[in-house]
Amino acid sequence: MKLTLKVWRQKNNADQGKFVSYPVEGISKDMSFLEMMDVLNEQLTEKGEDPVHFDHDCREGICGMCSMYINGKPHGPQQTTTCQLHMRSFNDGETITIEPWRAKAFPVVKDLVVDRSSFDRIIQAGGYVSVNTGGVPDANEIPIPKKIADEAFDAATCIGCGACVAACKNASAMLFTSAKISQLSMLPQGQVERKERAEKMIAQMDAEGFGACTNTGACAAECPKGISLTNIARMNREYFSAVVSSENV
Amino acid sequence: MSWVTKTLSSTLGRKLIMGLTGLFLILFLTGHVSGNLLLFKGDDGQAFNIYAKFMTTNPAVKILSYLTYISIIGHVIWSIWLTRQNKAARPVGYAESKASTNSTWSSRNMGILGTIILIFLVVHLQGFWYEMHWGNVPTVTYEGEEYKDLFRIVTFAFQNELLVAGYVIAMGFLGFHLSHGFASAFQTLGLSHKKYSPAIETVGKIYCVVVPAVFASMPLYIYFTS
């Protein structure tokens, strides 16, 4: 395949940034999108140019590190992570536009790399459970109905890639935050900090400068892990019931 | 900040205000469209004028009307507040976006739709609501009691094709606004459950077509019959 890549280049956060077009050749349809980017970077390195910086880690679709807004969609045309996107989803001769996630809370570090530590701070604010130290508890000591376990697991499959924020017209982090609140609020282990968790995580989400939710559903439609909008409704219930009944006056 | 102001100024609190005021305005629209069906009665406006007097003088209705004014103003102010926050959350936009593949047009353009509805509302209130309250409305007498002849004002206004067309188009925009707003308000309140969410969505889909269509039929009916 022969392609033209229109890539966002930005030296650092203070730089204005601009699109630069690169032709690439010899791309196999079986390559992943990141492998195609590797080909481009090898070309650039050989020419002595600065390679395009992009985030990636496991390349197995489970770490949530890869990002990239490809042809107007987070993670490109398929509902998967960029590392699991293959070049067969594109046509020979196509021009592919590649941009970083765009959000105030995800500042550009360089090129396509954005700083997603705002997600980490939301988790730090309350996305945890406190457990007693000591011996390892027996398996199945706490009975959890299969249905609840499955639903909590569905929420827990969020890999925190930020595609929801990237897709949302308001750059809202509600799908992410709601998945993280949901996975713990449904389980018995999550009950101790339940109210505090909802209040603190949402306060942190607001403090990071994410937008509000308009219920467009773009986040769920683009989420590589299929996190559903019911989590946002659950987060709203968790938050409203927490603020009227928690100890924080 | 007290916990109340803190909650209401949080993102979710602001959305709560949008949802609650939106749902109240949906209730208002239901009442408004039902009452206005009296325009079709064909009694030269007697029932409509009696109803209009009741609506402007009954104390219980007064309370509801103040709640409606508060809801309209609240819905507008909070939407501006939220929109500003939302715009600020993405200072640099995308060069290319395929938003139409993941969301509906109305859901992404609630602000534009709402602004058009607000402009319509100003024209609408000025034409009828202001006239009824403070304008120079002719009176009629039914069974010895004097009534303001709002029906005359309405039928006179809808002789104008431009106004009729404007009303019909505005109702189209209202339909699109409701097509997203109805179910969205319930989702914001956290009311999402497989038992009743499908029903909410179905009712929303019917509501956003039927209510604006019935409203739009009123100026059309008057224009073509009188």
From TrEMBL, chain A:
<keyword id="KW-0001">2Fe-2S</keyword>
<dbReference type="InterPro" id="IPR006058">
    <property type="entry name" value="2Fe2S_fd_BS"/>
</dbReference>
<dbReference type="InterPro" id="IPR004489">
    <property type="entry name" value="Succ_DH/fum_Rdtase_Fe-S"/>
</dbReference>
<keyword id="KW-0560">Oxidoreductase</keyword>
<dbReference type="InterPro" id="IPR025192">
    <property type="entry name" value="Succ_DH/fum_Rdtase_N"/>
</dbReference>
<dbReference type="InterPro" id="IPR009051">
    <property type="entry name" value="Helical_ferredxn"/>
</dbReference>
<keyword id="KW-0408">Iron</keyword>
<dbReference type="GO" id="GO:0006099">
    <property type="term" value="P:tricarboxylic acid cycle"/>
</dbReference>
<dbReference type="GO" id="GO:0022904">
    <property type="term" value="P:respiratory electron transport chain"/>
</dbReference>
<dbReference type="GO" id="GO:0051537">
    <property type="term" value="F:2 iron, 2 sulfur cluster binding"/>
</dbReference>
<keyword id="KW-0479">Metal-binding</keyword>
<dbReference type="Pfam" id="PF13085">
    <property type="entry name" value="Fer2_3"/>
</dbReference>
<comment type="similarity">
    <text>Belongs to the succinate dehydrogenase/fumarate reductase iron-sulfur protein family.</text>
</comment>
<dbReference type="InterPro" id="IPR050573">
    <property type="entry name" value="SDH/FRD_Iron-Sulfur"/>
</dbReference>
<dbReference type="InterPro" id="IPR036010">
    <property type="entry name" value="2Fe-2S_ferredoxin-like_sf"/>
</dbReference>
<protein>
    <submittedName>
        <fullName>Succinate dehydrogenase / fumarate reductase iron-sulfur subunit</fullName>
    </submittedName>
</protein>
<dbReference type="GO" id="GO:0009055">
    <property type="term" value="F:electron transfer activity"/>
</dbReference>
<dbReference type="GO" id="GO:0016491">
    <property type="term" value="F:oxidoreductase activity"/>
</dbReference>
<keyword id="KW-0411">Iron-sulfur</keyword>
<dbReference type="GO" id="GO:0051539">
    <property type="term" value="F:4 iron, 4 sulfur cluster binding"/>
</dbReference>
<dbReference type="InterPro" id="IPR017896">
    <property type="entry name" value="4Fe4S_Fe-S-bd"/>
</dbReference>
<dbReference type="GO" id="GO:0046872">
    <property type="term" value="F:metal ion binding"/>
</dbReference>
TrEMBL record, chain B:
<feature type="transmembrane region" description="Helical">
    <location>
        <begin position="110"/>
        <end position="130"/>
    </location>
</feature>
<feature type="transmembrane region" description="Helical">
    <location>
        <begin position="164"/>
        <end position="186"/>
    </location>
</feature>
<dbReference type="InterPro" id="IPR034804">
    <property type="entry name" value="SQR/QFR_C/D"/>
</dbReference>
<keyword id="KW-0812">Transmembrane</keyword>
<feature type="transmembrane region" description="Helical">
    <location>
        <begin position="206"/>
        <end position="224"/>
    </location>
</feature>
<dbReference type="InterPro" id="IPR011138">
    <property type="entry name" value="Cytochrome_b-558"/>
</dbReference>
<dbReference type="GO" id="GO:0016020">
    <property type="term" value="C:membrane"/>
</dbReference>
<feature type="transmembrane region" description="Helical">
    <location>
        <begin position="16"/>
        <end position="40"/>
    </location>
</feature>
<keyword id="KW-1133">Transmembrane helix</keyword>
<keyword id="KW-0472">Membrane</keyword>
<feature type="transmembrane region" description="Helical">
    <location>
        <begin position="60"/>
        <end position="81"/>
    </location>
</feature>
<protein>
    <submittedName>
        <fullName>Succinate dehydrogenase / fumarate reductase cytochrome b subunit</fullName>
    </submittedName>
</protein>
